[in-house]
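Data availability (excerpt). The following record was deposited with the supplementary files.
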Amino acid sequence: MDTPQVIAPPCAQPGSPGAPGSRPGTPGSRTDVTPTSGVLHVNVRHVSGFVVIGNHLAQHHELSLVAIGLAVHIQSLPAGAKVGIKVLTARFPESEARITAALHELEATGYLHRSRVRLPSGRVVTRTLSYNQPGATAPPVAVAPRRPPRRQAPAVPEPAPVPPPPPVAEHAASPLPAPVHVPPATAPRTPPPPLPQPHRPTAELLRTAAAVLADLRRHAPQLTLKEGDIPDLIPGVAAWLERDTHPDTVRHALTTGLPLPVKHPAKFVRHRITTLIPPPLPGAADLTPPPARALAIPLQNCDTCDRAFRATDPGHCRDCRTDAHPGPHTAD
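Predicted structure:
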């Protein structure tokens, strides 16, 4: 029995882990074993300038490393510090897209909440709440309303006592006339001058005038006329063409030196047609229409004596009429 077994482990040395008589938590126990690989902690107790971070954040299985580091940084900042995307991008070497994605991760997991709040002054700001424990209730934040400064009213001197009016005799009292409201005098608006009219409006003349008006928008888009405005302006352009004015001359007079903008194209074109119409050329034929001729009464033959007489309707001459009532006017 005193022969040692080759397969039996050697006895542990006193004080080594698992040795008889060793207690957990004491030097030499199994819990005080120094690992041979992995991380080794060298911890120093902080007395100021530190933040408490839970393992649920530091060892989160879904958050990225950028999101975990950004959450630790935000929780270490004092209240009121700026944590916007522009500020964080200027602080860290990560791009704006990575920081934006990390903020969205923290919002999705409940570590961060951002909202837009309107202050009493009307300014809209972004309020960020950082939670060291997701699901915690945020304390209400009271915003003190801005009060306008109180202004002291200037001292108003008390008015001097007004003596009572002297008594008026009854016979001298007379009712005052009622005030008459006189409206302010306004100058009457001068009617615009009439649009020129052609003396002999032929079909070809009117057709050319319509083509000139419809073609204005190609040379000046500001003078795009409605379809209903062109028939009203055709007589004015026809009066220009009747005075031996070339269509290109009419177009140039209507489209040169336009104001900006042209609010009413039809009224503007009408004004230029009326005020810029050229006079007739010297030696041109008189364009005034000839006077109307007197209506000629036709000749009729008398039904009785076959005598010729003038009348509007056939019948009897003056000598053969025996009817007492006068007939149609005749002229022998």
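Summary of structural features: Strands lie at 112-118, 124-130, 299-301, 308-311, 330-331.
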